[in-house]
Amino acid sequence: MNKIEELERKSIGKLLMQYSIPTVLSLLVNSLYTVVDRIFIGNIPEVGALALTGVGRTMPIITLIIALAALISMGASTNISIKLGEGKKEEAENTAGNAITLSVILGFIITLLFLIFQNQILDWLGIQGEILFYAKEFITIVMLGTVFNILGFALPFIVRSDGNPTFSAVITITGCILNICLDALFIRVLHMGIKGAAIATVLAQFVTVVLGLSYFIKGHSSLGLTKVNFKLYPVTVKAMLLIGFVPFSNQLSISIAQVVSNYSLNLYGGELAIGAMTVISSIASLFLMPVYGIAQGCQPIIGFNYARKRYDRAMKTLMLAAVCSASILTAGTVIAWIFPEFTVGLFTHDSRLMDIAVTGIKKYTVLLPLATIPTFGSGFMMLTGKPKIAGLLNISRQSVILAFTIFLLPRAIGQDGLWLAQPITDLLTSVITIMLFIKMYAHILHKQSHHI
């Protein structure tokens, strides 16, 4: 059975597993980069809580780098797949080469700008006092490796679009395992502190880049890259950036929300509240990454069947994916509520930070399963010819609704508003998503109701 027949005839459950599991594993491994760093940093003797807060303060910068990496990598990988599908191998090779060139150029520019305006950027983010030392020590080293960060993000996507998801996974997993080992070596054995965590991250990303480039250099790729492919072509770059703009916008909106969040956290909870949110968001990400993986995995199934007017299969895929994801997030909520001391204790043993984070995680995760609705609702809209509405919904969720909620809610109810801002945002965006979905797909929902 070829791919087209599979998408049209194979059971939805088997298809969903087939397409989702590799993506879920990839996203989980990528998430572990950040989570493992934070676990080691938070457990640095005597200064772990301050160091963890320093890292939390720099997250808007790191998220911005991820946004730029997504702009290139997702735009490039999609274009490569399209061009290969159309039999335009030369254009696919140009896209891959241009993505690598653009990653290098952008990485150097970002590093240079940061080094020039470092003090102004950290001051604008409100990083001052005792936290400044830890934040500066960590982010300076990470920013020196920006080229490896962006390339290390992009190359696995390009390798996957070349038709080798296995090697793509190997690249990512190798980088993650190396990061864990180096964290243990630099922090636990050599006692290098937060600087060791940053160096471990950069070295792991460097190895990821070496492995990714070796795939093309050693001729394993179906794309034969030569010097001419690395020359930037305006048409190729434009096509790449147009597709990558949506994931870039999503990440950028998260960065904006993080800036506002850190301001409110510091204002109403102090620096330790930022450290607590760093811990809470890390724990939540371990449950959210599988959901995002399922959301990406179901895209080709929904897109294909919707285009073929097989609305029953498209809707069935959406429902099954959403139910599976809601179950994962429900399990996450239960774990957060029953074992808060254990989950938070992985990151810190500081009693003050523990108390704040344990209280916060219960409130933060209370409506976590609702995150399924905007995630899959906007994804379905994106795949069915409504990208502007989907993009607007995604961007407004973080940079508008969450930013305003976390800014205003603590003014009304105090520190609890810091932790309840996310669940209230999920509730509001879920209601908006459901209303838009019913309005836009009423004709399909009506037909489906007659088949039940």
UniProtKB/TrEMBL annotation:
Keyword Amino-acid biosynthesis: no
Keyword Membrane: yes
Subcellular location: Cell membrane
Matching InterPro entries: MATE_fam (IPR002528), MATE_MepA-like (IPR045070), MATE_MepA_subfamily (IPR051327), MdtK-like (IPR048279)
Topology relative to the membrane: Multi-pass membrane protein
MF annotations from Gene Ontology: antiporter activity; xenobiotic transmembrane transporter activity
Origin: domain of life: Bacteria
UniProt GO BP: response to antibiotic
Transmembrane segments: 21-41, 61-84, 96-118, 138-159, 166-190, 196-218, 239-260, 272-295, 316-339, 364-383, 395-413, 419-438
GO-annotated cellular components: plasma membrane
Keywords, ordered alphabetically: Antibiotic resistance, Cell membrane, Membrane, Transmembrane, Transmembrane helix, Transport
Coarse class of the protein's main subcellular location: membrane
Family: Belongs to the multi antimicrobial extrusion (MATE) (TC 2.A.66.1) family. MepA subfamily.
Name this protein carries in UniProt: Multidrug export protein MepA
Source organism: Anaerosolibacter carboniphilus
